[in-house]
Amino acid sequence: MRLPAPIASRTLPVSAARGNTNHIAACVLQVCFLIFAAAASGRCADDSQTPKGLESERDLPSRYGYVAEDVRRLSQPVKGFWIDLGAGKGDVAIALIREAGNPVVMVDPDKDAMTKGLEAARQQGMQDRLLAVVGSAESLPFPDGVADLVVSRGSIFFWQDPVQGLREVQRVLRPGGKAFIGGGAGSGYPKEAVAKLIQQRKEQLSGAEAEKWKKFVELRHPDQMKEWATSAGLTDFEVLGRGAIDDDPKVGQGVWLLYTKPSATTN
Ligand SMILES: C[S@@+](CC[C@H](N)C(=O)[O-])C[C@H]1O[C@@H](n2cnc3c(N)ncnc32)[C@H](O)[C@@H]1O
User: Fold this and answer.
1) Nearest CA to 57 among 243, 225, 204?
2) Are 203 and 57 in contact (CB under 8 A)?
3) Which residue's CA is the nearest one to ligand 1's atom 4?
């Protein structure tokens, strides 16, 4: 299948997609690139609020495959309509497609990053399973109760309003749908790399950009994630991990919100 050029204002027939992989595949064939108004500006690792020093972590092994493994193991999502929220270049989405074979829709305010993701997917022969929608967490461009999985790595910490973003995640999930939202390297990430990552971050806490790094660590703390989830009115959730400068046997370094939308939830 060939990806058309980005198309403005086409509508994804997600209502046809509830819990049915064939219907999702049909959606994939029908729509390849949707444009919606972005309510928030995109910010990522090179943002001015993000401390310098993260660049050196790029020399460490890739985390995406390990994160995708954890998403499957811990969320056990049913196949269907899967979203990578704050997808950036789609590395998690691509790893998930490779891991589970299910199509993934990226959502991000940064269309240039997602365009790179679409190109990477094409180079890897996955162009029929990766889609892109320009949008933001605070106003997801999808109807209520349609998604089987929302995964989001390294993004919630940049959202303008994480609580509103989580409300939106809850809204678009179908009953029984799963969310796996946070940041980290994945439980299978090589231990030497985890140790190096944590050691480097700890050193930064007393370095030239100590204040930015403290904020970085605070935002990625389990208590912060619990506060966001509780304020968003989520009930059936678990916060996993010990944060940005600690390791956890179940999810490795980082922090993750694992959420299942209860069957009785009304949007
Ligand atoms: C550090 S990057 C992470 C990208 C990717 N998920 C990864 O793990 O490599 C953060 C991403 O969040 C996106 N972002 C920022 N604000 C957002 C918002 N309000 N809603 C959704 N995504 C947002 C940015 O554009 C950026 O692509």
Assistant:
1) 204
2) no
3) 88
Q: Is the CB of 156 under 6 A from ligand 1?
A: no
Q: How far apart, in whole angstroms, are the C-alpha atoms of residue 182 and residue 176?
A: 20
Q: How far apart are alpha carbons 8 and 173 in whole angstroms?
A: 24
Structure tokens at 58: 């790029």
Q: For the chain, which residues make up each domain, given as ranges? A: 14-260
Residue to probe by mutation, ligand 1, list 41, 63, 105, 108, most atoms within 8 Å of CB: 108
Task: Give me the CATH code for the 14-260 domain, please.
Answer: 3.40.50.150
pTM of the model: 0.85
The minimum-distance atom of ligand 1 relative to the CA of 50 is 1
pLDDT tens, per residue, the chain with 267 residues = 333 333 222 333 333 333 344 444 334 333 434 433 333 334 554 456 677 778 778 889 999 999 999 999 999 999 999 999 999 999 999 999 999 999 999 999 999 999 999 999 999 999 999 999 999 999 999 999 999 999 999 999 999 999 999 999 999 999 999 999 999 999 999 999 999 999 999 999 998 889 999 999 999 999 999 999 999 999 999 999 999 999 999 999 999 999 999 987 555
